[in-house]
Write a structure and sequence with these properties.
303 residues; mainly alpha; MetI-like fold; 2 domains; 15 helices; globular
Length: 303
């Protein structure tokens, strides 16, 4: 009887009016967020499959007779868009690798209490978070290094950020020192401790930094617009930017050289199809990174 009474008491507490009101408010707010995020995505996705004349004159239609995959066919047939997609994969992948390597190494070094000049290094790093040379000095530096119109002009600048270093440092400081002390007793060097013990435990923060770096570089186009002159090196976002801003497909961007009127007619369809293609890598990556993302952000942001 006591267990039944206790169960009813818990149920009464859980079903109180205050709890019900809070749950209702949470459900309403979450539903609004879902709608705000989902509706534009669905609009773009459906728009990419609609015939261009239907999309321009009537908007979104759920009639299967109005659907077509011509937008995707033309994208995959077009050399500049597919080349931009491959360039974006190269830039984002290289940027992510460089960012992870240096952020993890710097973060681990700064997490060691015995590091000589640790405070001076942190002050130097933090100073760069608030002050930088500006666009013109940065451009002159990239030019003097001979990186203009090369993939390295996109991969190297900005690959290492102080924020990522601080996240990695905080994560490493949260790891028990007893692990490193036990390894030193067994005769392991600092390098072996880092490779054999620290790195296997750092998977969450590595995946978080990788996701941050990849998304940031994948969506970037400004550096490419400044440092790249050869159109064959343009990333997908820069190609997509030209389509969105000019609201038409430029001559030469479609392989079969459509007439101008035809190009204007299909511009909306190609625009939406390009957005879907540009978003696919991020939509595919996130479900695999989600468990590491949640754990890494919480551990790296605490303490």
């Amino acid at each position: 009887m006591s267990k039944i009474a206790h169960s009813k008491k818990i149920q009464t507490i859980n079903n109180s009016k205050t709890d019900q009101l809070l749950l209702l408010i949470n459900k309403i707010l979450l539903s609004l967020v879902v709608v705000i995020v989902t509706v534009p995505l669905l609009y773009v996705l459906l728009g990419s499959f609609l015939q261009p004349n239907i999309l321009v004159s009537h908007g979104i239609s759920l009639n299967p007779d109005h659907w077509t995959i011509d937008g995707y066919v033309r994208i995959f047939q077009d050399g500049s868009i597919m080349r931009g997609f491959l360039n974006s994969v190269l830039y984002a992948g290289g940027f992510t690798i460089v960012s992870i390597i240096f952020s993890i190494l710097a973060g681990y070094a700064l997490s060691i209490d015995e590091l000589v000049g640790k405070k001076a290094f942190m002050i130097f790093f933090l100073f760069t978070m608030f002050f930088n040379g500006g666009l013109i000095p940065t451009y002159l530096l990239i030019r003097e290094l001979g990186l203009i119109n090369t993939p390295w002009a996109i991969i190297l600048p900005g690959a290492v950020t102080v924020w990522n270093i601080i996240l990695a440092r905080t994560y490493f400081k949260a790891l028990p020192n007893e692990l490193k002390e036990a390894a030193r007793i067994d005769g392991a060097s600092d390098f072996m401790i880092f490779i054999k013990i620290i790195l296997p435990l750092a998977k969450p923060i590595i995946f978080v930094l990788a996701l941050f770096a990849f998304i940031g570089q994948w969506n970037a186009y400004f550096n490419a617009m400044i440092y790249l002159e050869d159109r064959s090196l343009y990333p997908l976002q820069l190609v997509l930017r030209e389509i969105l801003i000019q609201n038409e497909v430029q001559p030469g961007m479609i392989a079969d050289q459509l007439a101008r009127a035809e190009m204007q007619r299909i511009s909306e369809m190609i625009k939406y199809s390009s957005i879907v293609v540009a978003s696919l890598p991020l939509l595919i990556m996130y479900p695999f990174f989600q468990k590491y993302f949640e754990k890494g952000v919480m551990v790296g942001s605490l303490k």
